Amino acid sequence: MMETPKGKGSSLTYQYDGEVRKDAHGHGKAGHRAILRFVKLLDILAVGAPFTIAWIYYYSGLIWVPDFRMRDFLVVMLYYCIYYLTVHLYAGFMVHIKKISEIINVQSLAAVITNFLIYIIIWILMARLPNIPVLLLVLAAQEGLIVLWAYLSHQWYFHTYPARSTIIIYDEMDGVDRLIHQYGMEAHFRVTRVV
Hints:
Layout: E1 2-3, E2 14-17, E3 20-22, H1 29-57, H2 68-89, H3 100-126, H4 132-160, E4 164-168, H5 176-182, E5 189-194
Helix pairs in contact: 1-2, 1-4, 2-3, 3-4
């Protein structure tokens, strides 16, 4: 059974096969989640790459521990985990709901928090104050990667999954449709009717 949602500009077609609903690209709910997780993974790897390079080529050489490969692996994995948890805590991966500027702000804050915590860990490992300018260069590179990822992922998502027709029904909260325009959420919700 094919169903095409009504509304101007809607290109979604759903194929119902028993209980499975698929979009026009053949992705079900699990496929959609898998694609989004891959896009999130790209962000985590891209933002963590400048730190990984700085750790391997600069900070790691300043610390002497017998099993340096395991130490390097643990520090880099710790960085990725802290960054992921911080971004996830502030919903920085919600491409389908947040504006590009909100994604950039949340991920930038997460990068600053992660770099600060890692700086403390490096300080403990070195037993002296580490060089700050190297970590500031890492942060600058991360900011550029965050802006690039936020813009590209946002463009990709709404090109692949356009806004769905939305009806707003309210009783006491007057003006919800105006809030959508005020916060620039037209790409997320295409309001067709307000009741």
